[in-house]
UniProtKB/TrEMBL annotation:
KW Heme (keyword) present: yes
Family annotation (InterPro entries): C-typ_cyt_methanol_metab-rel, Cyt_c-like_dom, Cyt_c-like_dom_sf
A Pfam match: Cytochrome_CBB3
Organism listed in the record: Salipiger thiooxidans
Sequence ranges assigned to domain Cytochrome c in this UniProt record: 43-176
Stretch forming the signal peptide: 1-22
Gene Ontology molecular functions: electron transfer activity; heme binding; metal ion binding
Keyword line: Heme, Iron, Metal-binding, Signal
Superkingdom classification of source: Bacteria
Record-given protein name: C-type cytochrome, methanol metabolism-related
Length: 176
């Protein structure tokens, strides 16, 4: 399940200067979210960044559904249901649209601390937590889908089936 672009970002702490511009409404034709190609059930933009795919009938791709599940298992305690934020941590539903993918990976992997007169926030590092790292792209695509309003709040009603490739990658990443 380990992909070279994740390892590069995680180990080198790659920070890209590219920031995505998110308007109040995001067009599905936006190159930062539009599907460029599919590989083994995972969707990517033309630039090779994970993205979501929602069918006309509302069926979400497996990684986005998995991201919903993993987000609610690992992230919502601080960041609130559906990435809407809490009194403890900021909303994340737009982060996947406004934050470069590699910056997102770096912050989740290595954590971040901001201390100042107006702000004191700490994001712990999750780089050694397989329940986050094995599903990091899934969490990212879920936040991207929700932030762009391609899916609403709550559990997606319809999902693609989990493929054998996803099961094999999950087992390999989790060490089983």
């Amino acid at each position: 399940m380990t992909r070279p672009h994740i390892l590069l970002a995680a180990t080198a702490g790659l920070l890209s200067a590219t920031a995505l511009c998110a308007a109040d409404t995001v067009s599905m034709d936006d190159p930062n979210i539009a599907v460029g190609y599919e590989e083994d059930g995972r969707y990517y933009t033309e630039d090779g960044v994970p993205t979501f795919n929602v069918a006309e009938d509302g069926t979400v791709d497996w990684p986005t559904f998995s991201g919903f599940r993993r987000y609610h298992a690992e992230c919502h305690v601080c960041h609130g249901p559906d990435g809407e934020g809490s009194t403890y941590a900021p909303a994340l539903k737009k982060s996947a649209l406004t934050m470069d993918y590699y910056d997102f990976v770096d912050v989740v992997t290595n954590g971040r601390q901001k201390v100042g007169a107006a702000e004191n926030s700490v994001m712990p590092a999750f780089g050694t937590n397989p329940n986050v790292m094995c599903y990091l792209d899934d969490i990212y695509t879920y936040l991207k889908a929700h932030g762009s309003e391609a899916i609403g709040r709550g559990r997606p009603a319809k999902k693609e089936a989990k493929s054998d490739v996803f099961s094999e990658n999950e087992n390999a990443c989790m060490g089983s």
